[in-house]
Amino acid sequence: MKNVFTTKNISGMAVFSALSFVVYLLEIPLFAGTPASFLELDFSNVFVMLAGFMYGPLPAVIVCAVKEAIHIAVGSTGGVGELANFIITTTYALVPSIVYRYKKGIKTVALTLFISCLLQTGISLLVNKFINFPFFTGSLPFVPNDISNMMFAKLWAYILAFNGIKSVLISVATILLYKRVSYLFKKINLQTSTKVAKDGALISNSEKQTQEIACEYAKTLSLGDVVLLEGDLGAGKTAFVKGVAKYFGLDGVTSPTYAYLNVYGEKIYHYDCYRLSCGEDATLLGLTDYFGGENICFIEWAEKIEDVLPDKVKKVRIEKVNEKTRKIYL
Questions:
Q1: pTM of the complete model beyond 0.85
Q2: Are 270 and 258 in contact (CB under 8 A)?
Q3: Pair 253, 238: CB distance under 8 Å
């Protein structure tokens, strides 16, 4: 619980709750002109899912609860519709956010979201039959009468289609936004935990602090990333790689000055291209074979092989201010 309710996490949940509520107000009727015109699509659950992936299942439930609680004030169902949405949304959000804590990756996200689409579609039928229809047809909740049963029989296909369409669209939007939003929030968290210079550089006053910054930066990386390390001799490039390796539970990082490539745990590939004259040299040595693989490549003196680098790369520049202090640009 202490790891969930940190200041950073609470701030993030507050932002997602606010965004979710605002988007909640932008509803789109999918079946206008039909008996099911009351079924309206919104994308507020995208932010519930993002909270689940970034912070865990409990924060996802909290964001959903806050969103629905605020909506009661502007809604017209007296809280009944919000209760129904809360049950359906939490059913949708829990499986992906729980599984993601133990196994990350786009395949895991896609598979668990597919399962959640089925769960949401199924639970929506139960929620409408036993909560919405009994209430809105005048009977007590959980006590369906003949009228609500008849209405439900006429509208069940619309309800099924609506929740199927909604869950799929929410899943696609979540997948498209996750990486960008995750990277942004992690970078903001990194900047709020480290002293920042006027030009945006992070200030490190020791090798240990450089490693701590790198460890946080590692959270923004994905397999296949290529990171160019820029900085003079002794700036702290190897210390930075040590910090990234520490995040992945790896050690034994040394400067690759006397080798073109050092590999750590088959995940971190640390290049030193100082003694290469051009990209063709790197290709002939097979060094480019590992770009974009199931690893993360850190390249020092990347300007030597600029012509064979991938189109999309990330850059980390380390400037030596004095013997202890460094400015790190991410």
A1: no
A2: no
A3: yes
What pLDDT, on the 0 to 100 scale, is given for residue 143?
43
CA-CA distances (angstroms) from residue 209 to 75, 197, 292, 329? 50, 15, 29, 14
Structure confidence at residue 185 as a pLDDT band (50, 70, 90): low
How does the average pLDDT of the chain come out, rounded?
Answer: 86
In this predicted model, which residue has the larger pLDDT, 114 or 143? 114
pLDDT at 34: 83
Mean per-residue pLDDT, 267-272: 94
